[in-house]
Amino acid sequence: MQAMNSKLMSCCRRVVSSNLxxxxxxxxxxxxxxxxYSLGLLNEEGVPVPRGEVASSPDQVRSIIEGxxxxxxxxxxxxxxxxxGKGHFxxxxxxxxxxxxxxxxxxxxxxxxxxxxLFTKQTGEQGRPCNEVMVCERVYCRKEFYFAIVMxxxxxxxxxxxxxxxxxxxxDVARDNPNAIVKIPVDINTGISDADxxxxxxxxxxxxxxRVQLRxxxxxxxxxxxxxxxxxLEINPLAELTDGRVLCLDCKINFDDNAEYRHPxxxxxxxxxxxxxRDVEASEAGLNYIGLDGSIGCLVNGAGLAMATMDxxxxxxxxxxxxxxxxxxxxxxxxxxxxxIISSDPKVKAILVNIFGGIxxxxxxxxxxxxxxxxxxxxxxxxxxLQGTNVxxxxxxxx
Length: 399
Fold this sequence. Notes:
Layout: H1 6-17, E1 30-32, H2 35-44, E2 52-55, H3 58-68, E3 73-77, E4 88-89, E5 97-100, H4 103-113, E6 116-119, E7 128-130, E8 133-137, E9 141-152, E10 157-163, H5 170-176, E11 181-185, H6 194-204, H7 208-227, E12 230-241, E13 246-248, E14 251-256, H8 264-267, H9 277-285, E15 288-291, E16 296-300, H10 303-315, E17 322-325, H11 332-343, E18 350-357, H12 362-375, E19 382-388, H13 391-398
Parallel strand pairs: 16-18, 18-19
Antiparallel strand pairs: 1-14, 2-8, 3-5, 3-8, 4-6, 6-7, 9-10, 9-12, 10-11, 12-13, 12-14, 15-17
């Protein structure tokens, strides 16, 4: 065992300097449901959304369009990634959101989506499989707005984000025209007020019946956000239609993973095919894992120490390949599984283990490391720092 000192960090720097990576890309730790589930929740709460259903085959696409008596329809690939409209499929089809002008057109386009992989700016080079498409009625927008609710630490609670520039990437709006984005904090203790909904309506310059519709929808959206322990509720676009209706045309909702015990029915809808396989394996093993974009794998106990370890790596010019907290009660088998997950990342060029044993026993970690090194035949540098409970018992295992 080696102490975590300058020699260790020099080793890590040498590993990274030979393999420079992109800046960190942090994956979400919230449940992210497909759009059709999110729109379904809105519909249940009385929020106006377009008519539509989800289909997993071209024949179902045909049946849905015929059932609704639609002439035009919109097909949306159900893939958990932003930028679908500008993406492309392995089938050669361009665009994950398509307007179809007749049934045959819709069936043909769905054949180019279903069973194929969609690539967008957010999916990376691996893409995401498209197993379902949402078939919606086509509506005609007079104006498109942006509306979202997030948990904002700045205001210690929910904050509504509103913009007159909807139907486009909100990050681009923030970059090019930040004054077009308005933040409206909501007191989580008293809930949303008439003043809050009036401020949203004023920001979007809606009057008359459209103002009444908007305020009602905003109230229901906020109540849904709180009811389901959401971390993000995003409507883009929120639209005023040519017929005077105000509709939520697209919806994304993220839910706090810590609230799974309160909403088991929601978490059963998680689509594991859209998840990184390493995240799936970590969840099954009871490990807290988040894949990053660096080259130094990390195995640490405790979220605080894990974050501090990542900071130290960054401070010395490296990039962590992951966040992995084995917790306080990990077994040798879990440690082995953790190494398996970390080493499965081809970007990892070294692994840093940083354990401060309180509840966690250092000898258990040491045995898990030895088992992993033997069973997985690790052939990359392994730097280990153990301190705390049973560290003396751990030392003989290395001799």
